[in-house]
Amino acid sequence: MEKTGKLKFAFYWAASCGGCEITVLDVNEKILDVLALADIVFWPVAIDIKYKAVKAFPDKSIDVCFFNGAIRTEEQEHMAKLLRKKSKVLIAFGSCAYQGGIPGLANVADKKEVFERAYLQSPSTHNPNCVTPKTSFKVPEGELKLPEFFDTVKTLDQTVAVDYYLPGCPPVSDQVAKAVEAIAKNELPPKGSVLAPEKSVCDECPRKKEDKKISKIYRVYEITPDPEKCLLEQGIICIGPATRGGCGAKCINANMPCTGCGGPCPNEMEQGAAMMSALLSILGVSGEKELEYDAEKLADQIRDPLGTFYKYSLPASLLRRRIMKK
Question: Residue 3 pLDDT > 60, yes or no?
Fold first, then answer.
């Protein structure tokens, strides 16, 4: 790589939706500050550069790599290991790299079940020959190859050593800008740190909290919530109590509940268990008083417990995945 005196940045997109790529541009005019600070030497979504060029980079020649997306294929695992080798600092950028993200919900299945649903069973699929992806296929022109699709979705740090974590789906632009500023000033915290405030989304939420119990759980389309009152106290499951802040409670300010993309609060072993504990306290079932309603029936109103409490964090949780019996 040509020496310019600037830092060398890299961005990579693994198993994710691409929103993390957009948030880099959402820093708006501050992107000019980034370009003044660093040369972007690898960014497949924006720059035409081949993997062989990355392999030719000297080891540790990339100052900072922002790696978004979980690891679910052989190619993504290979790139995680390659970019770890080439980078001084590796940042798990966004919920999917940090905790597994929404792709991690596939850990309730294995590759066989995922392929059957995606290529054979979905209502919009017409596949009379029952063709599913293969790692290799011969055609007259030669052999076509695809990377192996893993049974289990992994977080980035379950694959390689990670230096820092920048949570969010996607990370909010203010946090991205602060991270870049800390890099520029050489003021990054100790390795292993999450680059977000040590407080919960609840701490950032302006809504009134009265510590009332609830007797009914609503899905978001079943009720028009009071914009001044705590959503959880209105019976709408909001993961704010168990989610690290830094986002400014943007979803809640739009009258939608937090779904937990910021990951667990500091010192929490896992996000899902912490939120279930918080919900039990507002349901009243963790206290000693007699209940005027059936707590089990109330809990049954939670239509999708796994998707509710582990929407972004299943691969990083104690559960990690469903046990598949052969």
Answer: no
